[in-house]
Specification:
This protein is mostly helical. The protein has a single domain, classed as nmb1532 protein domain like (Four Helix Bundle (Hemerythrin (Met), subunit A), Up-down Bundle). The chain is built from five helices and no strands. Pfam families: Hemerythrin.
């Protein structure tokens, strides 16, 4: 399995969890929304950690590019962490409309971010890390499934 295929699969998993949270909030079920958003947030944070601790450093080591696409992805991760925190705060306060607004902002940011990773960064990783990609995917798999 390629890095792109594996990470794209994890993006879809996170998307499904996000959709469940948004649906629950839209239905007015804040208990279910909190649970689903918590699962989504945990999955996304594991995904970010896998990228930041394993994938990005391997790519940077191989290419020598430390100020390029991985730096942009790290900055976008920080933006999404802030949006997730604001969404959690809205859910904890019982402010469904605020949550849905934060969720819309987060969705747009995630979609743009994921497109860059799936169409640019991950293919670059597969190309640059070709000989090490299989072992890297297995390491990422264990990291993403660890929690």
């Amino acid at each position: 399995m390629t890095i792109r295929d594996f990470m794209l699969e994890d993006h879809r998993h996170c998307d499904d969890l996000f959709a469940a949270a948004e649906q629950s909030a839209g239905d007015g079920d804040l208990v279910a929304a909190r649970l689903a958003f918590g699962q989504f947030r945990d999955a996304v944070l594991r995904h970010f950690t896998g990228e930041e601790a394993t994938l990005f450093p391997a790519f940077e080591e191989r290419t020598g590019m430390r100020m390029g696409p991985t730096q942009v992805m790290r900055m976008e991760h920080e933006q999404m962490r802030a949006l997730m925190d604001a969404a959690v705060d809205a859910l904890e306060s019982g402010k469904t409309e605020d949550f849905l607004g934060q969720a819309d902002s987060l969705l747009i940011t995630m979609q743009q971010h994921n497109m860059k990773e799936e169409n640019v960064l991950y293919p670059m990783c597969d190309q640059q890390l070709g000989d090490a990609a299989g072992a890297l995917v297995e390491r990422l798999r264990s990291e993403l499934e660890a929690a």
